[in-house]
């Protein structure tokens, strides 16, 4: 369904398309306000015929994911999931961290809920089984370089040197995979034997190392809190809905152990039945996740359960079951997931309420004090220099009370020499708004060859770091460019703290405990920080400048060659033309330039 602008409003599927479409235009039969609103916006229908119901489901899901239609229930998902990857396609496999599960010869374990825990586990496995961590191409690169530090500290068996056979190394990898499957007992027994043997041989340092490894293994083993005697992979999926939002909680059970949980927000859920929300989640989530368990335990009977089973089984390559447990431990796990979803939603609502006060509430407060219609986008500017050296300007942008760092800009002052903040500010503002006007004109003329940045969008409010003087400079620039934007100064007291706002030639008091005041302070501090960081980076570059940079004809490659050949600047200074010419990167002319440059320098 498309609107008059040809934007997609809704994507749906049906066996009988005529009946499905007609249902939207019947007299109101309790569809809900959102659907009625959607129907009023429909300008035309576009339809695609498929060979089967399964094909229609896949196509529907792909179109929803690609277009995010306004009236479809959507999964708000910006998470990526960590996996442990064993590169079995390599002759000497590695154990790696991965957020992508590809269809390759590797074996994947996960998904896991904590990236930190995954990295700790990989580090432990490499220590336990002495596996390689390098990215050398083996066996091609065997013996080309010396073994690395890991071999010398006994954390790798150095397959890069051929010190371990392919078969022995594979046994190490298989041991690591058994560990990842939850079989910890053989590892602990083996480590305990080695620890006791080292202790009896009075190799106490080595014994302590084994003791620490045992503690690490037990720590990983104890993280598996909930177990299931069936030892299968399953996901437990339940939701809680409140008003116009829903949270779906997923428990990930792998090899009978709960390895993690995640929650996901679903939007556009008002008037949508809970089973339908859960079904839409399963479609969108499992279309994108690379791992599919053997079983999905869900909270409600799904309208298209049989079709979903068929699609997911096809995607998995083996049978997948969707079940609604009614009694026993499984039913309690589903109930627990639903309770967790409710807790997440209530906690996030409180957090959102507080955050809204700090951001949108603060913006409304500032707009009210200044008697403006809105102040959603605010830009603040600051100048930084050291006694006029390396004058720079900064522009920071806040939208709806939050920093929009992608729109921040730095300015290196081109026309002002010396410490003149007013002149610097004039240049910065002139460049910013002139650039913005040029971009806007190009956009109107549909100049597709031009790159458009953040300058095209003008602020609702311009904030100047100072009082009357800085405000007047900004007003003059805007007047010259025929731009009408409110300008407000952030006035400071004798202790350099913001005390009020200077607007329309009047200093307006502001409650120093209010969220509006706190937002003004954050914006002021951010503009100051951004300018100082830029200025500091320029100073650092100036300080690391080498005397060799000033020699005509000597670039980075020749400079490095000089420093590689001679031990110090003094040696270069005393070198003869023939000595420098002998360096492969130099010719006669360049060598003469070096000697000529140093001979022209005054003697110290």
What would you note in describing this structure?
- Helices cover 45% and strands 16% of the residues.
- The strands form 3 sheets. Strands 10, 11, 12, 13, 14, 15, 16 and 17 form an 8-stranded mixed beta sheet that branches.
- The model is unreliable at 223-230 (pLDDT under 50).
- The protein contains 19 helices and 17 strands.
- The protein is extended and about 90 Å long.
Task: Set down the secondary structure blueprint.
Elements: H1 17-23, H2 33-41, H3 53-67, E1 74-76, E2 83-86, E3 95-98, E4 107-109, H4 115-129, H5 149-152, H6 166-180, H7 185-200, H8 204-222, E5 234-242, E6 245-254, E7 257-267, H9 274-288, E8 295-298, H10 305-316, E9 321-323, H11 328-358, H12 360-370, E10 377-386, E11 389-399, E12 402-403, E13 409-412, H13 421-444, E14 461-464, H14 468-480, E15 487-492, E16 498-503, E17 506-509, H15 515-543, H16 556-565, H17 569-574, H18 577-581, H19 588-600
Parallel strand pairs: 5-8, 8-9, 10-14, 14-15
Antiparallel strand pairs: 1-7, 2-3, 2-4, 5-6, 6-7, 10-11, 11-12, 11-13, 15-16, 16-17
